[in-house]
């Protein structure tokens, strides 16, 4: 179960400290996704973001896969569970920019304001999560934590139910969601009807055997 963790204060590092941390980081990397320090002090590197989306996303129909409902040139569908995306970013990129880049990479047409980026840490058999503010810098967090995802990982989620910005949804998006819900409701209804029809057949068969003249 996720446990909410208080945000840790940002510690500003000198250029020399950044250089030392990057050298230490790169010496521990096992997947070749190393960081690079530029002459201007800005460094670049990679982060992996796990997509944990419960609601369907809206994409261009030509890019969609899986269960979907069509509307003009856009499609709403559920992203597969456990999908992980790797982004190459710089130390100046903010959480908001990372979210926008993720959506662009997936051809997602939804408003970025619907989503939030979380950091997840493992400590003493507990999983701690914390929603990052739009102005935080994910690559800095990756550098400080090191390359091991057990120490720190990033997760993209929708805003919690109480935080949903309904004004960010367009009418076509809401209509697509309703189509998906109607389809799922019909599928569940048909499944229930088949199940109870099978029960009824067995009961009638049993009753026939009980009352059958000897």
Specify the CATH class of the largest domain: Alpha Beta
Question: Nearest-angstrom radius of gyration?
Answer: 24 Å
Mean pLDDT: 80
* Oligomer category: single chain
Number-wise, the strands total: 10
Put simply, the count of helices is 4
Q: Fraction of residues in helices?
A: 25-40%
* CATH architectural category of the largest domain: Roll
Look at the structure and name the CATH superfamily of the largest domain.
Phosphatidylinositol 3-kinase Catalytic Subunit, Chain A, domain 1
Given the helix and strand composition, which structural class is it? alpha+beta
In terms of DSSP E residues, the strand content is 25-35%
Sheet having the most strands: 7 strands, mixed
Number of domains: 2
N→C terminal distance = 61 Å
Describe this structure as you would to a colleague:
With 214 residues, this protein is of the alpha+beta class. The protein is 35% helix and 26% strand. It has four helices and ten strands. The protein has helices spanning 15-28, 95-105, 138-145, 171-211; strands spanning 2-4, 36-37, 43-51, 57-60, 68-71, 74-77, 83-90, 115-123, 126-131, 153-158. Strand 5 (68-71) and strand 6 form a beta hairpin.
């Amino acid at each position: 179960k996720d446990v909410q963790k208080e945000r840790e204060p940002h510690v500003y590092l000198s250029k020399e400290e950044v250089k030392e941390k990057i050298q230490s980081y790169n010496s521990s990397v096992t997947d070749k996704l190393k960081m690079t320090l530029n002459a201007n002090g800005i460094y670049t590197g990679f982060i992996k973001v796990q997509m944990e989306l419960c609601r369907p996303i809206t994409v261009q129909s030509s890019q969609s896969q899986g269960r979907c409902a069509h509307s003009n040139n856009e499609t709403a569908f559920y992203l597969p569970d456990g999908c992980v995306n790797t982004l190459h970013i710089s130390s100046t990129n903010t959480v908001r920019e990372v979210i926008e880049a993720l959506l662009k990479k997936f051809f997602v047409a939804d408003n970025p304001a619907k989503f939030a980026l979380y950091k997840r840490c493992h400590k003493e058999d507990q999983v701690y999560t914390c929603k990052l503010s739009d102005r935080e810098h994910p690559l800095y967090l990756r550098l400080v934590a090191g390359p091991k995802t057990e120490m720190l990982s990033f997760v993209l989620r929708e805003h919690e139910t109480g935080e949903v910005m309904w004004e960010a949804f367009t009418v076509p998006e809401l209509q697509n969601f309703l189509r998906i819900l109607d389809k799922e409701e019909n599928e569940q209804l048909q499944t229930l009807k088949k199940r109870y029809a099978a029960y009824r057949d067995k009961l009638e068969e049993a009753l026939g055997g009980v009352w059958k003249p000897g």
